[in-house]
Amino acid sequence: MGTLGEILRWCFYTVNRWYYRVAARLMRRDRLVSGSEKKFRALLESAPDAMVIVDRRGHITLVNAQAERLFGYRREELIGQSVGELIPESARARHRQHQKVYLKDATTRAMGHDLELRGRRKDGTEFPVEISLSPLETDQGQLVMSAIRDVTDRKLAEAQLRLMAEHDTLTGTLNRRSFETLFAQEVAAASVTQIEGGLIVLDIDGLKDINDTLGHAAGDDLLRRVTVLLRGELRDTDLLARFGGDEFAVILPQTTREETGAVARYLLRTIAESVLVIGSRRVRITCSAGVSSFAGGAQPEEVMLAADTALYAAKDQGRDRVVVYEPAKEEASARHVRAAWTQRLRQTLDLGQLVPYQQPLLDTRLGLVTQCELLVRVLDDAGKPIAPIAFLATAERTGMVVEIDRFMVDCAIDLIRASSATARAGGPLAYAVNLSARSLAQPDLPGDIVRRIEAAGIDPRLLTFEITETVAITDLAAARAFAHPLRALGCAFALDDFGAGFASFSHLKHLPIDWLKIDGDYVRDLPRSRTDQVIVQHVARIGRELGLRTTAEFVEDRETLEMVTRYGVDAAQGYHIGRPEPVSAGAPAPYPTAEGIVHERP
């Protein structure tokens, strides 16, 4: 799929290209003999763009009124002149070359020919134009008809789209996607020069409290003010980005680990000592930061992970501090953590102590919770849940994730059976379960699930399996083989985090899916990001056209819910709908109907 700019360009010009090519065919048929000259001139004058007809030598033989208006000449000033008068000197050679190829190549003439360059008005001003060339056979020989359109507005729109695609619309900084591209280039350059560079990942402490107490507008204002503070202390060569939410990142080229740590501490001190006026309130805030460095042989993902690890350590140590990632110390610590989690997971599985949580999904058309996603948790010594990010890597590495997936599938089937036995308004709840790459590679697992469903006597349409893009593309053949018997039975498959990968749209051709779960990075700032709004609307439309249903994740306020409903997204999931809660097999939570939901759909 092309860029947004390419899509806009295609939509804008398809009709015009059709018009000019039909006109050219009509002209070839009439061959401009005297009987058709009046008809031809009327058609030329009615064209919406500037029309300039030139002979094989490049001399102008005929123009319309639009050409006069566009270039500022009277038509008698143009007739007989070289078409080069309408093109800046710097672009004339390119224009001549294109016209030469056009006149010699019959295939090119048959298809028409478009080219972009600069136009020049009589007063000397230059502007971008697109020229559509079409052949014209006459009694006087072969002519070339040029339809010339001013594309200044389109170029400005494309530039704005590029800016929106590369920058955070709230703060004007780079967004995560463009930052990661530039960061990869910096790491590659450091590998060549062997000059160390630094990375800071910075998180605002307590932004959620400000959003909750003063409102999201105050939170947005705070983010903009923090951006100004950071920019004021960074060099012109440093790169600043907002990753979304309360997280920022900074690349410091040609800076050692020690220097990067010093810069991070200075930035945190500057922010902590600043009194920010948000609305009518004066507030002070603090930040936490993680630091890592890169030089020869570094991988961008590893450097980012190191900085994130250091950031989490800074938060765990009480916030308002900087932690510098030290590879030797962190590796030893990581090995210890992995060993501890391996032992803990084995014990948890053996004792049957995994805890399933459920998070509701709201059907935006019905205003009802009709489905829940099951999420696995492990409890700490105090009985509090531990998020999967802490132990799933260990589970994947050891293969215990397959046991976890089997447990969660069994839970979903039991919950569906219990829900089907109740007189719940809106019918029984459907459940969705996440599957790992390891599970997709288990050839016997689909058959086991089919037998389990049949033994339980549940409606298989109430069971959905979620897989992420990264999991699916690990082995497309395995993913298709896994899905085939379950989809044949009636189960559904959802592609999670849709849009997070660069090849998201190509996966629609190869994966057997029924649902698209729009990556939360495009949803969490939806009310404030025009880029996210365009993307979410287009994904919802694509889903409808392909017969797929869509879910928006990270719906955390009413405004976002109303927007995704209006865009035609089928389901919403996030804290505004409901937080993950522990469930017990046989006792599904009775979610009520959501009140006051906007029901306007496209």
In what range is the share of β-strand residues? 15-25%
Helix/strand/pairing category: alpha/beta
Largest sheet: 8 strands, mixed, barrel
For this structure, the CATH topology of the largest domain is: TIM Barrel
Integer tally of domains: 3
Question: Level of helix content?
Answer: 40-55%
Tell me the Rg in angstroms: 31 Å
The count of strands amounts to: 22
Judging from the principal axes of the Cα atoms, what is the shape? globular
Unreliable runs, pLDDT <50, ≥5 residues? Answer: 1-35, 106-112, 585-602
> How many distinct helices?
22
Q: Termini distance? A: 23 Å
Would you identify the CATH architecture of the largest domain? Alpha-Beta Barrel
Oligomer: single chain
Give the rounded overall mean pLDDT. Answer: 80
- The first-level CATH class of the largest domain is given as Alpha Beta
CATH superfamily of the largest domain: EAL domain
Across the major sheet, the strand order is: 13-14-16-17-18-19-20-21
Give a brief outline of the structure:
Helix content is 47%, strand content 22%. It is α/β, with parallel strands linked by helices and 602 residues long.
List key phrases describing it.
47% helix, eight-stranded mixed β-barrel, Beta-Lactamase, 602 residues, alpha/beta, five-stranded antiparallel beta sheet, Alpha-Beta Plaits, disordered C terminus
Please give a structural write-up.
This protein has 602 residues and is α/β, with parallel strands linked by helices. The protein folds into 3 domains: 4-156, PAS domain (Beta-Lactamase); 167-325, Alpha-Beta Plaits, CATH 3.30.70; 349-582, EAL domain (TIM Barrel, Alpha-Beta Barrel). It contains 22 helices and 22 strands. It has an 8-stranded mixed beta barrel, surrounded by 4 helices. β1 and β2 form a beta hairpin. The radius of gyration is 31 Å and the shape is globular.
